[in-house]
Amino acid sequence: xxxxxxxxxxxxxxxxxxxxxxxxxxxxxxxxxxxxxxxxxxxxxxxxxxxxxxxxxxxxxxxxxxxxxxxxxxxxxxxxxxxxxxxxxxxxxxxxxxxxxxxxxxxxxxxxxxxxxxxxxxxxxxxxxxxxxxxxxxxxxxxxxxxxxxxxxxxxxxxxxxxxxxxxxxxxxxxxxxxxxxxxxxxxxxxxxxxxxxxxxxxxxxxxxxxxxxxxxxxxxxxxxxxxxxxxxxxxxxxxxxxxxxxxxxxxxxxxxxxxxxxxxxxxxxxxxxxxxxxxxxxxxxxxxxxxxxxxxxxxxx
Length: 302
What we know:
Blueprint: H1 14-24, E1 27-28, E2 35-38, H2 50-62, E3 69-78, E4 88-97, E5 101-110, E6 113-124, H3 147-151, H4 157-164, E7 168-172, E8 189-195, H5 203-214, H6 220-225, E9 236-246, E10 256-266, E11 269-278, E12 283-294
Antiparallel strand pairs: 1-2, 2-4, 3-6, 3-9, 4-5, 5-6, 7-8, 8-10, 9-12, 10-11, 11-12
């Protein structure tokens, strides 16, 4: 299994979704029920997209879990940059199979070295109390410009990739910070996101794709509050870890609102958080990610 060419920029937008679905269809080892192999979506910088390997690790774990149990939480650490030219091996450790909960650890390996380590917990459907924080007010996503429309104006390979070859349509309520900082210094932002095409009716797959999608925007509030943008000269940014909790069933091929914030930034690290709502106001997931975010410091003049 090797990475396949990403769809051309002028292709059907649904091709990007189909391509990612094919990448997420892991190959099981014929002689080891706990070992899987996957390819990567090509990326202009040559590195494996963190959201992709996180989604693959969750799907590998899910392949070893009894039917009827879905992931309700995961905690993962990004340990090394992955190479999109190499396949990724996913080894699953069966930590626990209880009456209601199942726990799995997945290591994603390239060249025998881990690039991601993740623990996920699965639960069978059970009755219980029901409450959630309400969804914040937000304009209809169809009234907002797509990130792709903004990025198509930029003559840069990364901008072209995110504009045309990614599987999700991203629409910011506030002014996007792709090209310039947010002068307000506020760290909160609202973002609508939806897959660019239909996704099969498989709840494990939808939850994995939600993890995939989150990694695109989780550290944006850190940049926004710090007065930086994705175009800041010398910016160095990388995901360090990711935690996610699914509260209710989710469909990534329907509009989802990410209500984002950043409670802290310090020491070259920033924490991004998000509550994720379906368009009808249901809180479907909560997620948090810490990342390394560095920009060149101004000279002291000495």
